[in-house]
Amino acid sequence: MKLIICEKPSLAMNVVKAIGNMNRNDGYFENSNYIVTFAIGHLLALQDIDDYFGREKSKWNLEELPFIPKEFKFKVKEDPGLKKQFKIIKSLIKRSDVEEIINCGDADREGEVIINNIIYSIFHSENINKKITRLWLPEQTTNTIRKQLNDCKDISNTKNLYYEGLARTYIDWLFGINLTRYTTIQTTSLFPVGRVLIPIVRYIYDRDMSIKNFKPVDYYVISTTIQKDGKEIKLNFKDLKFEDTSEITKVKAEDIISTLESKKVIVDNIIIKDSIKKRPKLFSLDTLQNYLFKKNGFSLADTLNYVQSLYEKGYVTYPRTNTEYLAENEKDKIKEILKKLNDDDLVFFDRKSIFDDSKIESHSALTITTNIPDDFSSENENITYNTILNRFKSVFCKNDAIIQEVQVRLKLGEYDTNLMGNSVKQDGYLKYEPIKDNILPDFIENEEFIPKMNLNINTTQAPKKVTEAELNSYLKNPFKKNDMSEEEEYKALLEGIEIGTVATRPGIIENAIKYEYIIKKRNSLSITNKGIFCIENLDKLHIDMSVSKTVEISKSLKNIYKDALSVEQLVFNVSKQLEQYIDKEQKLDIFQVEKEIIGKCPKCGKNIVENEKSFYCEDYKNCNFSIWKNNKFFDSIGLKKITKANMKSCLKNGYFEAKNLTSKSGKKYDAKLVMEVTDKYVNWKMEFNK
To answer: What is the dihedral of CA 392, 394, 396, 402, to 10 degrees?
Structure first.
């Protein structure tokens, strides 16, 4: 009998369907050959400091830091459902008829660690030693699951992946537990510190400080326009821009204008050529996230959720991938997908630009599978799937995309400039991923125009706010240069020159928002006062959580994967760093939280303020007025949560206008939500416009 332990229930259900004819039991499925059970994500967590001392939760103590366990220990999380499932898995592992245990965690480091930790923990406590193999699923289609079940490898084949994942877990615990306690004790406010979290916050801090300290400079520029076919066209002559607005510069610029006004703009040369537009690469997770952020405004976390759902339904391959290439042994699989699509415009290409093992670490690029969906859970899931599908079609489109490029060179006296235009001459793959034309008017060589010239004062612009897509690209390679070749980029990636992983970055960015270090407004990220306080006090404490230090650890983790470094050596190195960072004599200012006043409390008249989950009275020790942002009533009418604007309206007018609510029958409607304050509760009444 073989016992398959899946990472989550949804994966278990896909495995059960692939095997077929299995009986359902409490927490597992079984037939004559297989038992399929499941974890529920991280059943086990590293013990806390209090656990090592065998005591109840206690006040954080500076004298206990840095705390370095002699042996890292895991425990079942404090949740009745998780404890019950762990007990079920233990009983199944102990069964005498179970001869082989199959790790069916997600096909990544995290999946390796989650399931192996459960198995090894039970082996150790029950003195068991059975065969362990690995079921590796690059996609969750029925055919792939059946095929991979017949090709399970001994767990020793992925031991280095496990050691790397385990080391990452240990290191993040050491930094997080020790430095979070240290900074929190010193400032008397909770200040989470993490190996990847802080470089993210610092990047946004540095940008916002450069914006804050930016000193705009005025400068003169001679603007030049011409009229062509009834349209005004602006020309940019690079040498007609000046560095300042001094009187000397002004006189110089006015002299140039008076000289040039008597001349004409002449079309000096026209070059028209057709070129084949380079095909895009298949998507990695980060390139898909950036694409959907720019095109559809999806957050990194949202895209990951949509594509993870598609993966679990068997529609796309494993999403947490950092490469844009396919493995060379996947050629037959791609031929099957192309056959399934049955599109005469698509053809199989055997090219190094598509299949290249040297650019793959664990997982290939994101593609669709042979499972073609009929329907989707949401419109955004539909958009995500079709984006991956269209990219696949673009790569394997039979015909090239041909672009007609037009370059018009114009002269004005001794000055010249170029106008660039392009248009699609042959769609090719662009039928799947269209681009906008930039069509120039029909200029003729030696054509002349009378220029309209003005002396304007322009101002240098401050740097722009950080966007999620920009941050995502930075974290992928913080040392990337503009002239870096693709070969150099992949070499850096495989060496571990990155901050976080493609799988963890969205969650850590969300954590930075949750911890109130940064805020997200529309498509940009900004530092908060708490974020500024955190970064500047880490500097005062001489705690080096810089990009260089984080990348150094990432490279060490890759060396564990390559069997060039042991887990114990990396833990020792980090322990020494922590001993240097924690200075018990160093004192810091107490962090003062400044909360925005939302309005006046309808019960006591004091200020209403906001936290992550609710709006409440600042005198909460004496006044019980509070409103949860999310509650069952709001959910029942299709309102995600009450916003700050809603709350301000309630405190001022006693109600707020709610739009696009959903009735039980699915109809959309608008209503006025009236707040009724009682001694104990806040009730809501709905009123409708007649």
So the answer is: -170
Q: Are 4 and 104 in contact (CB under 8 A)?
A: yes
Specify the pTM: 0.86
Q: What are the strands, taking DSSP E only, across 171-316?
A: 218-228, 231-235, 265-276
pLDDT in tens, 124-158: 999 999 999 999 999 999 999 999 999 999 999 99
Tokens of 459: 């101002």
Distance CA 580, CA 61 (A): 18
HEC readout, 480-511: CCCCCCHHHHHHHHHHCCCCCCCCCHHHHHHH
Helix boundaries (H) for 541-596: 547-561, 567-581
DSSP 392-453: HHHHTBSSPPEEEEEEEEEEETTEEEEEEEEEEEE-GGGGTS----BPPP---TT-EE--EE
Q: What percent of the chain has pLDDT over 90?
A: 84
Give the CA distances from residue 324 to residues 353, 365, 648, in Å, rounded to whole numbers and listed in that order.
Answer: 9, 5, 48
Summarised one tens digit per residue, pLDDT across range 611-650 is 878 899 988 888 989 998 888 888 888 887 888 999 999 9
**b/e burial code for range 158-185 (CB count within 10 A of at least 16 → b):** beebbbbbbbbbbbbbbbbbbbbbbbbb
CA distance 420 to 410: 11
Under a CB-based contact definition with an 8 Å cutoff, are residues 551 and 498 in contact? yes
The CA-based diameter of the chain, rounded to the nearest angstrom, is 99
